[in-house]
Amino acid sequence: MNCTSCKNGVLRPSFIDGQFRAHTCTNCGGNWILVEDFVSWKEQNPEYQFSQPSQWSEDEVSETASAMLCPITGLIMRKLKVTAQTSHRIDFSSSVAGIWLDKGEWELLKAEGIAGTLNNVVTQQWQNKIREQSASNNFAEIYEEKFGIDNYQKIKEIKQWLDAQPQKADLRSYLLAENPYSASQ
Ligand SMILES: [Zn+2]
Q1: 106: CA distance to ligand 1 center in Å?
Q2: Virtual CA dihedral for 172, 174, 175, 181, nearest 10 degrees?
């Protein structure tokens, strides 16, 4: 199999961290992993924990920004985020359930604590969860910017307290009324 990422290497059979079957490019060091291989290894080793990479930095992770072709089907692979915290994306070929990791991305998955659940990362549920989380992170940033950090913290506490009160509707009306002591509200 030829490497569709660097287009200069060959994908040779390998074992990631000496555990599960994969193919590694002789040139760019990227890894091609079939979800099937990962899952069958996981079934045999349910307790296995991948250790956090030591002396690791996200700067060392390479990423192909352009679309990549599946080394098996030749079709364009989808780019999938792995968590809401990192902007790195991995390539996924849904037709063969194959994952492409650029050099360093396996370390990134270990650092994020999701290497052991690689098969979940490519599911629609996981991707939806990331989308929701990214959206709520964006809102938090917008509020922080708009209100200032201290005020945002304060209004969050007030809201939390308010939401926990049995008469929250009445309390809200009181709060929102220009003059809560006037009947003409
Ligand atoms: Zn390559």
Answers
A1: 15
A2: 170
CA distance 183 to 144: 35
11 C-alpha to ligand 1 centroid (Å): 7
What digits encode the pLDDT tens for the residues 9-23? 999 999 999 999 999
Q: How far is the CA of 12 from the centre of ligand 1 (A)?
A: 10
Domain boundaries, the chain: 11-123, 129-176
pLDDT digits (tens, 9 = 90+) for 36-93: 999 999 999 999 999 888 777 777 777 777 889 999 999 999 999 999 888 889 999 9
Place of tokens 């939390």: 160
Ligand 1 centre to CA of 8 (Å) is 6
Q: How confident is the model at residue 97 (pLDDT cuts 50, 70, 90)?
A: very high
Residue 3, Cβ density class (10 Å: 0-12 exposed, 13-18 middle, ≥19 buried) = buried
